Amino acid sequence: MLKLGNLILNVPFMQAPLSGYSDYAMRRLALDFGAPLTFSGVMLAKSAAHPKVLKKPAFRPHDDEHPVGAQILGAEPVTMAKAARALQDVGYDIIDLNFACPAPKVLRRQRGGYLLNEPETIMRIYDRVREAVSCPVTIKLRIGFDSGRKSYDNFHTIVSGASERKVDALTIHGRTVVQKFTGDVDWNLLAQIKSRLPETTIIGSGDLFNPQTIAERLAVTKVDGVLIARGAVGNPWVYEGLNAVLKGEPAPPKPSLCEQAEVIRRHFDGVCRLYEPIAAIRYFRKFLIQYCRLHPKRKQAQKDLIAAKNKTQLITAIEQWYGNSMLPEVS
After folding, report:
1. Do the beta carbons of residue 37 and residue 94 sit within 8 Å?
2. DSSP characters for 38-87?
3. What is the pLDDT of residues 168-213, one digit of tens each?
4. Quick one: pLDDT band at residue 220, thresholds 50, 70, 90?
5. Is 265 a member of any domain?
6. CATH number of the structural domain spanning residue 67
7. Among the three residues 223, 246, 269, which one is the final residue of a domain in this structure?
8. Quick one: 91 exposed, middle or buried, by C-beta within 10 A (0-12, 13-18, 19+)?
């Protein structure tokens, strides 16, 4: 189990907040495949704090997806606290503070991973948010802004300060901000932090793409849980597989083409309920690219699927590439 304040999850993993991906359609699918907790995409605090924004259905949690979390991004303590309270009031069950995002536009505005250079600011933000809400509050970090000694010291100052404040969880991506998503993930450092702070809930993150690897990371590092991010895009089966492996059962075989088609259709139907038809097609293409990674003829299938300009064309392409029983299954 995984304890996050007053939330108790029956398995030690969750779906990450993914900007531009983890809308209700993706979250609902993750829940159906065994993720016990999902997050909406990261929200700017100044937007989330605005009453008109949270009146829009896309920004509010649905009744059938609790518990569900919200992640906020910002640099001003009062605004972050106001946003956290507003998100709690519309129904989110947990608030995550993003001090990890490496996107250049975020760093230029001195948000996200930039704030790893300012431990005092991070602690002020956390304190104000903690005072503003009664739900669990977690913090998302990377292991430093860069690989320099100052970044190393800042990171450990933040970790120690959050631990002393009894933060509900620290989620740590084992790369620096400068690394973005390249280079190795330092899981050894995550293991060291957990060993040093056994009473603090530590969630590991970074390059978690298959159930066996995820289970090994949990077993070796002794972290309390993991946050699955890119590994779940176009692959909700990762949750089903991880549930099996953690029970000591064999990981399920890769889904058949028929199973893949059913999930792609279900996901797309969910997207169509959220967006206008043309916008839905354009938005869903990035998911199709990831779904096609499981197809034995990935490049050809991907080319036809992302070329679809409307729902009819996309359904036809899915039937062409996934509905032919003569096409070889995934090995």
Report:
1. yes
2. EEPPPEEHHHHTSHHHHTSGGGS--TTS-SEEEEEE-S-HHHHHHHHHHH
3. 999 999 999 999 999 999 999 999 999 999 999 999 999 999 999 9
4. very high
5. yes
6. 3.20.20.70
7. 246
8. middle
